Amino acid sequence: MSVGIFVCSSGKFRTAHFGDITKNKEHDLMCPNNPIGQIDVLLGLHHGQSSSHSQLIIFPLAPRVGLMNNGTRKAASLRP
Questions:
Q1: Over the stretch 32-50, which tens digit does the pLDDT of each residue have?
Q2: What's the confidence (pLDDT) of residue 11?
Q3: Average pLDDT over residues 2-21
Q4: With the C-alpha atoms ordered 13, 35, 63, 1, is the resulting torsion angle positive or negative?
């Protein structure tokens, strides 16, 4: 289970953090329509693991910046 947030704060700044949602839930969120629109910052990226943050969510959100939280025992598995 995971909690996701979308923040549209002062001015036009928009950010999102979807926690540890997996690819199948990303599909449910983004298909058939993107309810969020484009954002400035995507937070989290599930430690860079390939189980989430697929093209299905990255491309529609089109973040200008993505921030990944990494730890000493988890390494990013995302490929460019």
A1: 999 988 999 988 766 666 7
A2: 74
A3: 77
A4: positive
* b/e sequence 41-54, b meaning 16+ C-beta within 10 Å: bbbbbbbbbeebbb
Residue-wise DSSP of 7-76: EE-STT-EEEE-TT--HHHHHHHHSS--SS---SEEEEGGGG-TTS--HHHHHHH--SEEEE---SS---
Give the residue from 25, 11, 19, 14 showing the smallest Cα distance to 57. Answer: 25
What is the residue whose two structure tokens read 């989430």?
52
| 49's tokens | 């693991």
User: CB–CB of 42/58 below 8 Å?
Assistant: yes
What is the C-alpha separation between 36 and 77, in angstroms, rounded? 26
pTM for this model (two decimals):
0.73
